[in-house]
Specification:
- With 279 residues, this protein is α+β, with helices and mostly antiparallel strands.
- It folds into two domains: 10-205, Chloramphenicol acetyltransferase-like domain (Chloramphenicol Acetyltransferase, 2-Layer Sandwich); 231-273, no CATH class.
- The chain has helices at 34-37, 64-79, 123-127, 181-196, 260-267, 270-273, and strands at residues 10-17, 30-31, 45-52, 56-57, 60-61, 88-94, 99-105, 112-118, 157-163, 167-174, 239-244, 252-257.
- The radius of gyration is 23 Å and the shape is globular.
- The chain starts with 9 loop residues before the first strand and ends in a 6-residue tail after the last helix.
- GO terms for molecular function: transferase activity.
- This is HXXXD-type acyl-transferase family protein.
- Keywords: Transferase.
Length: 279
């Protein structure tokens, strides 16, 4: 069935939001883990929440202007606790060691993006079709043309609030290198609590993120010499896992899970095997 022709989305305003006040820890680089670096070429995490448009809030006639201002204010307060999301990536290259490091400069760039848009469709237009209509993609910023590594010049976090004819869609696009599913919804929940608090001190009630990594001195087993996957990671379609190489110097260890026929074909590829050393 042909999808109906929906109107184009209209961008009303675009703002960049910084943390409400300076965070001393934000002056230090926020380093990515080896696992974070694996998704530099992947896409952002994108989810949105659809609400009916209220007629009143707290006995007052609903005003989109006041609502947006309250969202931006609470967003700024939330970024105090999620300050890396207001920065951008920096890549530092060591030519002598032939190495490069990607980290977050928490004060680089204009901040997290906050977009206000309008789209003349209804909630039913979004929810009624059996398949999610393509117009829903326009409700998100940082779409498929961007990948995580673009965080060196694009915001790491972007909020888009879109007015529908009878609803409001709040979408959050965040760089996957510094968030996973758990921390993504953690951000949503903290922002929600701060917004509901109307500026009151609710910090003691919040489960805030911890950025200082720690391990007991002298008790860790040291650096792993290899990794192996279990049955759950062996798929018929094939999977490839990569981690920092045990030899160091920028090497990469690969564990390739393929069917026997596919593995034989891969090992017969002379060009591929020229770059592979057997364990």
């Amino acid at each position: 069935m042909r999808e109906p022709d929906f109107p184009l989305i209209k961008c009303i305003s675009e703002n960049f939001i910084k943390p409400k006040h300076e965070v001393e820890e934000s002056k230090q680089p926020y380093h990515l883990t080896p696992h974070d670096l694996l998704v530099l070429t992947a896409h952002h995490i994108q989810f949105g929440l659809l609400f009916t448009r209220p007629s009143h809030i707290k006995n007052q006639v609903f005003s989109i202007h006041l609502f947006l201002e309250s969202l931006k204010e609470s967003f700024s307060r939330t970024l105090v606790h999620f300050y890396p999301l207001a920065g951008q990536f920096v890549t530092k290259v060591d030519e002598d060691k032939h190495e490069s490091v990607v980290y977050v400069d928490c004060n680089k760039g204009p901040g997290a993006r906050f977009i206000h848009a309008t789209l003349d469709i209804t909630i039913s237009d979004v929810l009624s079709p059996k398949d999610v209509p393509l117009v829903v993609q326009s409700l998100f910023d940082l779409n498929e043309e961007y990948v995580n590594y673009d965080g060196s010049s694009k915001p790491l976090l972007s909020i888009q609030v879109t007015e529908l004819l009878d609803g409001i869609f709040i979408a959050c696009s965040v760089n996957h290198c510094i968030t996973d599913g758990t921390s993504y919804w953690h951000f949503w929940n903290v922002w929600s609590k701060i917004h509901q608090g109307n500026g009151k001190d609710t910090i003691c009630e919040l489960d805030l993120p911890v950025y200082t990594r720690w391990s007991p001195d002298g008790r860790a087993p040291g650096r792993a010499i290899a990794f192996r996957s279990g049955y759950g990671n062996s798929k018929d379609t094939g999977l490839v896992f990569a981690c920092q190489g045990s030899e160091g110097g920028g090497s990469v260890d690969l564990e390739i899970c393929l069917t026997p026929d596919s593995m034989d074909a891969l090992e017969s590829d002379k060009e591929f095997m020229a770059f592979v050393s057997q364990p």
